[in-house]
Write a structure and sequence with these properties.
Largest sheet: 5 strands, mixed
Strand content: 5-15%
Shape: elongated
Number of strands: 5
Radius of gyration: 29 Å
Number of helices: 5
Number of domains: 1
CATH superfamily: ATP synthase, F1 complex, gamma subunit
CATH class: Alpha Beta
Distance between the termini: 37 Å
Amino acid sequence: MSEADLGSRIDGIRQLGSVVRAMTGIAGARARTARAQIAAVEDYAAMLGEALVLATAELPDDRAMTTARPAMVVFCAEQGFVGGFSERVLDGAGADVTGADLFLIGSRGAAIAAGRGLAPVWSAAMPSRSASLPKFADRVLEAVFARGGLCPVSVVHAIWKHGQPKVERHALFPMAHADDGPAPASPLRNLPAADLGAALGLDQLHALMTRAALLAFVAENEARMASMSAASRQIEEELGVLEALARRLRQEAITAEIIEIAAGAMVGR
């Protein structure tokens, strides 16, 4: 390899390193923003859960009768450079995914699911901004219940824990009822208990779907940061090797030039 070719390759690797660092910074900023939003959504969902218990205290425990085929919402990766993120999520869904209508989130995950022979009844791209996820959760729930009739709804998503993605699965609907403790006093209300309970239940379902989307969003960006960190280390190692080679070539060229000058001086004597 000539010195000029080596210099071009070093410049190219340095530019690649700049791109990798930029991607790492973007992913980190997105993950930090989404984490702050998760806490707010969790508090909101807990508040709705308490209100739902109070609003339906006088109603009989006739839990929603589900008549339609179960729906499973699976949050995979939207973009690449995340290692085996989507594969882990789909593995976590397990064989149950074939017994439910699959609602798949994430373009990258949809391509991997197609390779596995999975055909979702509905799919969508994951928003690139966490601020768009509450509205996106509305879209997901509209698609789930657009088929008509009530159906069990579960979500499968990853959380980032101890430096790697961990897949979790939660049932969102029907919601579990707390059976322990005395029945709370019924509050003053302006709506029938059934109507108020239905409205609060939908709001809580939306909050829980938003929480799942935010957790998946954080996990994908954390996985991208981990992949980019590994790539950055590899780039630094290769850059070190090439720069050492470039120094050796320059030293050899300088040595050859000195020898040539010295030889010329000897001949001229």
